[in-house]
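## retry 2 of 3
previous attempt timed out at serialization; input unchanged, resubmitting
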Amino acid sequence: MELKTHHKWMIGSFGTILVIYMIVNAIFVYSLFIKQNLDAKDLNQKIITTQSDINTLTDNLIQTKGTLEKTLTTLDIKLGSIDQKMTLLKASAGEDFSGIIENAIKAVVTIRTETGQGTGFIIDPRGYIVTNAHVLVGGQTIHAITSEQETFEAQFIGYDGTLDIALLKIAEKTGAISLGDSEDVQVGESVIAIGNPLGLQFSVTEGIVSGIHRSGPSGKNAYIQTDAALNPGNSGGPLINKQGKVIGINNFKIGSGESLGFALESNYIKKIVNEISLKAKNETLI
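## retry succeeded, writing output
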């Protein structure tokens, strides 16, 4: 049966619409595919950017942690320094000097021979004593008398005539006093000297460091100058700082002036004492 004209028109229109629909649908599907690809790329880029931000944040946190740890360490050091300065300030004001003297004087002894007397101090609990060599000149028997008035015969170990140092030993085990680092000594810091001036046993005088690395009888710039009163009998006694450590051994004074005392620096004491001990006992003491 032959199609009528309007039927042909309707079939043609439907075919055209179908073709147009398929084209539009293809374009839509293609556009959706392109959009999904673009969204996937954008998401991937965002993931990469986020990962980079996370890595950067992690690095910053690690760096911040390291900086914080350093800051806390520095703060601990500063707080420790502040505590130390407060302790020194209290000592400078005299509040803690009585405690320092009470502890130090237990390690100080009177050195007595047939020809005279001076002072010494114990540097090792086994009974090793340091004094000036000139204190022993002319003596045959040496006795060490403690602040408790106990008397012990002292054995002569050795001496250094240039720096006027002698090393002795008593059999009794006793308390000892530590030597400080004389390179840390500062002009103006407070010090005390303990000795037996003119036979007045265990007298304490206070002063300051007036100078460092002064020249002395040995020809070396090895002496601390102090205005702490030193008199005959103080020779061989300790010059003590605010930490209760020996920074020098009281050695001589200039009689024509006032408050001009001199002590051999502690680092020279260490060197000479160890040399004497190595030679006599084959061991170092300090």
